[in-house]
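Handout for the seminar on molecular recognition.
Each group receives one record of this type.
Step one: identify the two inputs.
Step two: read the structure output and locate the region that could contact iron/sulfur cluster.
Step three: write two sentences on what you found, then compare them with the reference statements printed after the record.
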Amino acid sequence: MSKPLQKLPVALTSSTHPARLWSPEAEGRVRCHLSPRECNIPEGGVGFCGVRHNRGGELVTLNYGKSVAMTQENIEVEAVFHYAPGASILSLGNIGCMMACDFCHNWQTSQARLARDRDIHVYSSEQIVEYALRHDIKILSWTYNDPVVWHEFVMDTARLARKHGIKNLYKSAFYIGPQAVDELLEVIDIFSLSLKSMDADFYRKHTKGRLEPVLAAIKQVYAASKRPGGPHLELSNLCVTGRNDNIEDAVKTARWMLDHLDAEVPLHYVRFHPDYKYTQVERTDVGFLEAARLAAKAEGLKHVYLGNVLESASINTLCGECGKLLIERRGTLVVSEAASASCSGCGAPSPVVFPWNMDEQGKGGTDDRRPLDGAGRVDEELTTVHRFTDQVSALHIEQAREAQVSFQFLDVSGKSVGARQSSSCTRFLISKPNAQATSVQIAYGKGDVPQIFEVLDRAHFPTTQEQGSDCP
Ligand code: SF4
């Protein structure tokens, strides 16, 4: 399946890079093997994803090195709860997608024709790795729209990052071909894979993809995860209001995992927010998510979590043997953790991987538990206050240069309810740390006015388009 060359942002069409995983076909056509869609693209056309182009009988990528603003976040926003808790990550997302979910919450970047030039940054692999090292960030996260369609750049950068001791996290809907998975297994340390449903009709109708290849690719990663030095794996199941927010579908996911993976693989039932073309419904009911979790645990899964839920004991990590609390969370923040290879209650191995020495747990960049030491800026010439709402408990702060920005959480009376923190990343996430916080005060230097973006859910990249605007 292919599309005619469409009107794409100039930033995409201005340069190309040779693609891999394709073969020539008759009459100058090419077939792309990156995703199971296997687009057969005529000369001059682009594939379904909008970012792989047949130029003169050869497949090229339009999005090599073209990313949304790289953003410092923490690993929990990627639905990874059992690897380096609280670790700082550098999130990178590009343009295009091999699926077309009508409920996508990153549609401004996943649908290439809707992307805007001003949201597209051009980075080299070296720039990204150097930036991560400078900000003491030990994990690159390939995320947002979907990294599958960025394959060549992901491979090149992830390989370079590994040479510098940086790990790679891959957050994806994973509609991907087996050869591409084999390549990723050479460079990716952590896979966070998102199942949209266990219903093949759901995939066909609402994502324009197919369920079976997704399941096959997950099994391929799982098999690799069982080998020595294999990657870490967690699964998410998005529960879309009125579509698959039913216990039968949720239990199907748990049963499939028990049949094809094992009871130790963490599963996250993720709350949906209305977006793109599916806005006429409410967010997923938290009561349903709690019931789904209990049902999955009754089936036999040991670690089942809720996603995009701020306050619930169901986002904490317990020992799978004795039930002792190992990691306490609030939303995507770690409140407390037992950073030990074994449970202090029963001695069973911890289900959580701590990949570094205990004294360097990868919490560089903005560390929500590290108070501002006073040695950095802050001349605090200007401040702005942003209020949280029922729907918004996290923000992206973006600035033009790496200036120090500090922030402090306030209660309804304006009193501080959290230690002041700071970051000098050009874009970074801040999350409401407790129930008392109703707003955050942001202090910045004169001439460094930051932009503020409301983050609705994890793995969500708000863009310069109006928040809440209707899609074209
Ligand atoms: S990545 Fe998938 S959607 Fe894009 S051109 Fe290749 S086969 Fe088509």
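Reference statements: Residues 382-455 form a domain with the Jelly Rolls fold (CATH 2.60.120). The radius of gyration is 22 Å.
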